[in-house]
Amino acid sequence: MQPAIIMQAADFAELVGRITKLEAAEQARTLATTTAPDEVLSTARAAEYIGLSADALLRARRAGRIQGVRLNEKDWGFSTSALDKYPRRGHRAAA
Length: 95
Hints:
Layout: H1 9-33, E1 40-42, H2 43-50, H3 54-62, E2 69-70, E3 76-79, H4 80-85
Antiparallel strand pairs: 1-3, 2-3
Helix pairs in contact: 2-3
């Protein structure tokens, strides 16, 4: 047997409105916290993505201007978020 609650129509409408707001807030929070995973590109693909030569990209990594991760003994990887933060070729930062 299920319990039944008797309430006025105005109170019921208020509860339905509150539930709708809570569901919308929960959906927005879920969408905000689920981000796409960051892709890691090899040195050659990262250099093409950012518009630099592979040597220039590796020099920037050695100088600490861009963050890289070691893929193996010979190659480095660069995340697309780090590449997007790096100033593009031909673009100058605003003074």
